[in-house]
Structure formats: structure tokens, C-alpha cells
Amino acid sequence: xxxxxxxxxxxxxxxxxxxxxxxxxxxxxxxxxxxxxxxxxxxxxxxxxxxxxxxxxxxxxxxxxxxxxxxxxxxxxxxxxxxxxxxxxxxxxxxxxxxxxxxxxxxxxxxxxxxxxxxxxxxxxxxxxxxxxxxxxxxxxxxxxxxxxxxxxxxxxxxxxxxxxxxxxxxxxxxxxxxxxxxxxxxxxxxxxxxxxxxxxxxxxxxxxxxxxxxxxxxxxxxxxxxxxxxxxxxxxxxxxxxxxxxxxxxxxxxxxx
Length: 258
Known about the structure:
This protein is mainly alpha-helical. It has helices at about 10-35, 35-70, 75-110, 130-230. It starts with 7 loop residues before the first helix and ends in a 26-residue tail after the last helix.
């Protein structure tokens, strides 16, 4: 079944996966004919890169299949999953074949040298040709190398532990510092909130004081106006007398005879 009718991207990814699987098949067939260890290693590296690409594409294929579950029938999704499993199975067979070839390369490295005409490396001495003393010396040398390697590993582990302890201490210090910063921020926030409340209260008091001052000014202006009116027109009965303020007396001009 052509997947382009379901999803063009799925069909494209399937085509890429099939191309890689064919390339892997041809590559492993060529690998069996290569005798040189270096060439075999390079060929294996290239095949490993292809397998990584194939694994990535299969993951993309699986992601798209999940996206298609909502829009396609159960049979279609089952068919897509079967194809995915088939591709995974074929890829796993090549992974197992790669591991087998790597094991063979290790055996070849033990018995083959850089010179293709010789069956063994010049520096490799077979155990059957060694004397007992040589075998003991060789064993002691290997043990010394092993002890040195273990010692280096211990130093590396100790160094890692020290770095981990320093990192943990630094993280603890940073955590404490962050805690102090958070506490200070909380205090600042509380102070700002309290100050805002105080400013609002002061604003209300100022507004109240302004209203009182305005009312007092109106009262003073009213009183002054009444006083002025009473002085100007003392006989106006519409305005009541202000306590403590007597009307002005009538002035009489004295007549003096000539």
C-alpha cells in the first residue's frame, strides 16, 4: 500500500528508510570481502552512521503514525505499526551483524599486522614459544599495568568525588543566598505595601483637611459678607442682626446759628 495516500511525509520517510536498509545490506556484503582491518573499520563506521540515520528516521515515522491515529482507521494504523516493526526488526538484524563484525575485527587485530604479507605482527609473541620465566615476567608486567590502571581510575574517581563535593557546596551556598534574597524581597514588598497604604491614608487626610479649610473659608466669607451688608444697609430687615454687632447710630448734624 502506497503511503502517499495517507501522508506524503510518511511515504517520503519510508522511502528514505528503505534506501538506507538497502545500502546497509550492500555494505555488509562488501564488508565480508574486505580483509584489511583498517578498511573494515572504516566500512563499519560508515555503516554505523547509516544505522544512526535509519534509527532517527524510524522515530520520525513513529511520531507521524501517532499523529495519524486521530484521523485514520484502526486497520490503517495497524498496518503502519506493522511496517514500523518490520523496519525496526531489519535494523536490529544489521545492528547484531555489526557487533559480530566488530568481534571479528578484534580477532583480526590480534593476529594481523600492518604488513599484509605476514600472518602475524612482528611484535606479537605466541605464548607457546615463551619459556616459563617469560610467561611469569609477562604476567607480572600485565599485573603492574593493571595496578597502574586501577590506581589511575581511583585517582579519577577521587577527583570526581572532590569536584562533586565542591559543586554541592557551591550549590548549597547559592541556595542559601537565593533564600536570603527571597526573604529580602518579601521584606521590601511588605514595606512597599505598607508605604502605599500609609500614602493613601495621608492622601485621604489631606483631602479631608482641604474640605474643612474650604468650608471654613466659605463660612468666613459668608460672615464677612453679612457684616458688610449690615454696615452698608443697616435697616434691611431680611438679614438678622449679628450678635455682638450693633447697628450704626444715626448721625445728626448740629446747626449753629449765625
